[in-house]
Design a protein that fits this description.
The chain has eleven helices and 18 strands. It is an alpha+beta fold and 378 residues long. It is elongated, with a radius of gyration of 22 Å.
Length: 378
């Protein structure tokens, strides 16, 4: 069953490679390797031929571990970066690729990494390079049933983390301690890892994505909490804003407005909708209420193996080296609410992971959306 799943994915990859004129892919991004082979780790690579052959190169220490996890046809261990370069050269020779085009992940490789994988001792002189970012994004955009189940499981982990974080919110506790409560709960509930947790409070809620600091929460503060657990290799993304005590009338009004905009956008997450329409819906509600100068950035992005991936709104896609996405198909998973309403003294935000449905969206993150905390006895 596992092998069949990866064979199907490799078949789709082969078709896209042929259309793009790529003879082989040389992948180093863990998420892309995980999607096509079942294992993705740093200091490793995967070569995928146009015929769907898979060759892996991993640290010598990791060979046996990868053998238990990955789908592959060939595997080699190396001891250092020089060994990695020579093993890449070996696979080019093994597959008989001395001329042609190799696809590389331009949006992931640093200049030094690019220099290593294109080193004369690794890549044959007759092989040219081309970006393959769009191929992997297109492959991964529409999720299958198992992927949606895994993202749903990660969403449940996110809910456990959010519950712990919100319960930890009280005067005197630091933003870092709120993040710690969330991360501990997520580990306990099944997360093997998580992307960076954002916690900001008071005036710091007015920044786009606030990493936690040692600032102590004060009565009347708003606290913005954004969690991104990884469970069984897949992610979820959820943000809630809560108040330390009773919110002011202005804070509650801003929160209610943002929630209205977010929910109106989620309601449109049906097959055939475009990312621009979704973005304009959320921003439009805020602008019509007079907050045109208080919005920032793209409010929507894809979710899957990574907590932020394709599809992305056109401007954001360009920044990330991605192509503008086509109208969304059913089973694309997105996060709605990536950027908030920033008033100046404070900001508010609500974010949920949503499956685009054929007729109706399916919201995976169900933690309550309330600005005022309820008492523990309620």
């Amino acid at each position: 069953m596992i092998s069949h799943r990866y064979q199907e994915r490799l078949g789709g990859c082969s078709r896209l490679m042929k259309a793009a004129g790529l003879d082989v892919l040389l992948l180093t991004k863990p998420a892309n390797m995980f999607y096509l082979t079942g294992d993705g780790r740093l200091c490793a690579y995967a070569m995928i031929t146009q015929e769907g052959q898979v060759a892996l190169g991993v640290p010598m220490t990791d060979v046996e571990d990868v053998k238990q996890l990955a789908h592959f046809d060939h595997i080699v261990g190396f001891e250092d970066e020089v060994g990695m370069i020579h093993s890449i050269a070996h696979y080019f020779e093994h597959f008989g690729i001395q001329k042609g085009v190799v696809g590389l992940e331009y949006t992931f490789l640093t200049q030094s990494m690019m220099a290593m994988v294109t080193h004369p001792h690794a890549k044959p002189a007759g092989v040219t390079v081309k970006d393959c970012t769009h191929i992997m994004s297109e492959l991964r955009m529409v999720k299958d049933a198992e992927e949606i189940d895994r993202i749903g499981a990660a969403a449940k982990v996110a809910e456990a983390g959010m519950k712990a974080a919100v319960e930890a919110v009280k005067p005197g506790i630091t933003e870092s301690q709120v993040a710690a409560a969330a991360e501990y709960a997520m580990r306990q509930d099944g997360a093997e890892e998580f992307w960076r947790t954002y916690v900001s409070s008071g005036p710091r809620t007015n920044i786009a994505h606030g990493l936690p600091t040692l600032r102590k929460l004060q009565a009347g503060d708003l606290v913005m909490i954004d969690v991104h657990p990884i469970a069984n290799g897949y992610s979820a993304d959820m943000c809630r804003t809560v108040c330390v005590g009773k919110p002011t009338t202005e804070q509650q009004a801003a929160y209610d407005l943002y929630l209205k905009a977010q929910q109106a956008t989620i309601a449109k997450a049906r097959a055939g909708v475009g990312m621009v329409e979704l973005e304009q819906t959320l921003h439009g509600v805020l602008k019509e209420a007079g907050h045109g100068g208080h919005v920032f950035g793209p409010p929507i992005h894809g979710v899957g193996i990574e907590f932020e991936e394709s599809p992305l709104p056109p401007g954001h896609a360009f920044f990330h080296g991605e192509k503008e996405p086509p109208p969304l198909e059913a089973n694309v998973v997105i996060s709605v609410g990536n950027c908030g309403l920033y008033t100046g003294p404070w900001g508010v935000r609500v974010e949920d992971t949503v499956v685009v449905g054929p007729e109706e969206p399916m919201v995976l993150t169900g933690y309550p959306r309330r600005l005022e905390k309820r008492r523990a006895s309620s």
